[in-house]
Amino acid sequence: MAQTVDIKDLSVARQIARDYKDVPGCIMPILQKTQEKYGCLSFEIQQALADELDIPVSELYGVATFYSQFSLERKGDYKIGVCLGTACYVKKSQDILDELQKQLNLEVGHTTPDHKFTLEATRCLGCCGLAPVMMINDDVYGGLVPEDIAAILAKY
Ligand code: FES
Of 44, 59, 93, 98, which is the most buried if we count CB atoms within 10 A? Predict the structure, then answer.
């Protein structure tokens, strides 16, 4: 996975803003580059960018929250996606999601404090024959029951 810059080191964000400052329509490329480097656009990062660009931070916040490609919170190293598509749902994928929430002590859409796991619900992953399905980064797990979850998580 892409190398991420320490979220507290704002010098990289400031440099990106300075590099693009004079380019017309620079906000999108600046946010994209910054997200690529840090893995997120935290409030502190947005503030640093806004300072360099000499614009109100609300302007960046509006864009960062509008597009789903941007995340205000740093994602985990392992992204868990549990399919809630129809085929998986009828095979009780909600129980799988509930079990993950319980074991990770985490709500859907959030990341563990150590940034190891991010838990998400997804649409059909295209392998309905394996329902219920979840993915952890590129690994696919199918035919799941809640009892499988602890052993799977232990691998990461
Ligand atoms: S509905 Fe889950 S993989 Fe298609």
Answer: 93
